[in-house]
Amino acid sequence: MSEIASPSTTSALVLFSGGQDSATCLAWALERFDRVETVGFDYGQRHAVEMEARQAVRREVTKALPHWADRLGDDHVVDLTGFGAIGETAMTTERAIEADARGLPNTFVPGRNLIFLVAAAALADRRGLEVLIGGMCETDYSGYPDCRNDTIQATARALSLGLDKSVPVETPLMFLTKAQTWEMADRIGGRDLVEAIIEFSHTCYLGDRTQRHVWGYGCGTCPACELRAAGYAEWAAV
After folding, report:
1. Binding site membership for ATP: which residues?
2. pLDDT in tens, 170-219
3. Which residues are annotated as a binding site?
4. Binding region for Zn(2+)
5. Which residues in 102-205 belong to E strands, given as ranges?
6. What are the pLDDT digits (tens) for 131-176?
7. Rounded to the nearest 10 degrees, what angle do helices 49-64 and 178-200 cross at?
8. Which homologous superfamily is 11-236 in?
């Protein structure tokens, strides 16, 4: 985690896609901060259903954590469709998911998390929110370089310089496996939170909500579904 928040910080902005990781991060934030807001980014993603899932996930997370429900404040959506059009990756256009010339999956949107953090930092500054929280992870992930801890730490330093104040960026999932992410949700909110994440969050790159698995909805074959399914199976087997 980069630029760790001090014990005196009381407010946070969660980068919130409506997927498993950001739903878990939202619960983690509600456990720790007196005031929590969320921000989502519309970058023309192929799995736009995640934008539709966000409000349901917010609602169900607070139902699972009623003792912290009053901590959840406003939600914001930032229009980044112009940025999303630059890359034309498999995340934003209809094309097969495969590795590119660098060995990266072609679902990688160049600079996406960097843009997200810049936009989130600007919003947090105007909203008086002290800490940014993201679900980036470099353990069980799709190989995106902007999910790595070094990248997030460097971005946090740049934001702190650019805004002339400390900009803590916390990444509670950075060094966790997907199984440990399920475990974190269970620890924070028990079966109610786990069921809310299964039923309402969305992670599938193809935006498939027609197939219901024990771990949630998705095509079951894209990299995001494979990671989520494998993590759930490992956690459930313990």
Report:
1. 16-26
2. 999 999 999 999 999 999 999 999 999 999 999 898 889 999 999 999 99
3. 16-26, 204, 219, 222, 225
4. 204, 219, 222, 225
5. 131-133, 169-170
6. 999 999 998 766 678 889 999 999 999 999 999 999 999 999 999 9
7. 100
8. HUPs (3.40.50.620)
